[in-house]
Amino acid sequence: MVLELLTLAAIPTAISTAVGASEAVHQQHILDDEAESEERQAPFYLDVYCSAKSSKRDEVHGAMIVLEDGKLKLWPKDTDTNLPKEYENDDSPPPHPFTGFYLPFPASDLPNRPIPHRPILGLVSTVPTPHSPSFSKPSSRSRKPKLNWIYADEETRELRYGPRAEARYHVVGPWDWTEDDEQGLTLDGEECLVAVEEETGGYGWAVYWDREDDRLKGVGMEKERRVLRCSLERRFVKGGRTAIEVE
């Protein structure tokens, strides 16, 4: 009789637990669908805007973001094509333009994530491939273009690109867009990206994450290199998405 009473008493708790788990799963599906919406996955380029009062401003303002040597760099934009400008007196193809979109970073690589949780919105881009023009459109017979994850290096703060196995150890998001116009690129809720002059000559600028909004003073960067605040803004790719593979 006592066992029967204990069993009956446990039934409401079991039902409540099951309902709670089901609701948590349902809410997780809603959050996942929002993060994977078509709007989030519309591909775009990144243009650079800079209003800093600096003699170097013209090297930054009006440029676009390219992927080269594992990093996100600034490159002059061809005013006719709105793609990376070709090298002067050089037959080499210009660098590969950032061509990406938002995508949730795999939860399996993010420990201690309860359910439901808002997915960490990552950022991916097509990457340069050997022996091919940097921004040619893939034909129906060519291999699917590969995507890498964009991340901020935990130590150096530079923005880099790489496969998931590499990116997971650094800051992979959340990336998003500015609330007022949905154009400006944000990381961790802020437009906190800066251009850093790694080499002089106009082609040596790279993008860094200015987490403390102090032009990288906290990591000693400003003493070594010129740092200019800038914003990166989306410019949608005509034609939409192509088949892709995410690494």
Tell me what the structure shows.
With 247 residues, the chain is of the alpha+beta class. The protein has one domain. It has four helices and 15 strands. Strands 5, 6, 7, 8 and 15 form a five-stranded mixed sheet that branches. A three-stranded antiparallel sheet has the order 3-2-4, with no helix packed on it. The longest helix has 34 residues. The termini are far apart.
Strand-helix topology:
Layout: H1 2-35, E1 44-49, H2 57-60, E2 64-68, E3 71-75, E4 96-97, E5 100-104, E6 121-126, E7 146-152, E8 159-162, H3 164-167, E9 175-177, E10 185-187, E11 193-197, E12 205-209, H4 221-224, E13 227-229, E14 231-236, E15 245-246
Parallel strand pairs: 7-15
Antiparallel strand pairs: 1-14, 2-3, 2-4, 5-6, 6-7, 7-8, 9-10, 11-12, 11-13
Quick overview:
This protein is an alpha+beta fold and 247 residues long. The protein is built from 4 helices and 15 strands. Strands 5, 6, 7, 8 and 15 form a 5-stranded mixed β-sheet that branches. It has a 3-stranded antiparallel β-sheet with strand order 3-2-4, with no helix packed on it. The chain has a 3-stranded antiparallel β-sheet with strand order 12-11-13.
Give keywords.
15 strands, 27% strand, 5-stranded mixed beta sheet, 247 residues, signal, globular, alpha+beta
Kindly report the average pLDDT value. Answer: 81
Summarize the biggest pleated sheet. 5 strands, mixed
* Percent in strands: 25-35%
SSE order in H/E notation? HEHEEEEEEEHEEEEHEEE
* Structural class by secondary-structure content: alpha+beta
Number of domains: 1
Q: State the helix count.
A: 4
Radius of gyration: 22 Å
Shape: globular
Provide the helix percentage.
10-25%
- The end-to-end span amounts to 59 Å
Number of strands: 15
- Low-pLDDT runs: 16-21, 23-32, 132-141
Oligomeric organization of the protein chains: single chain
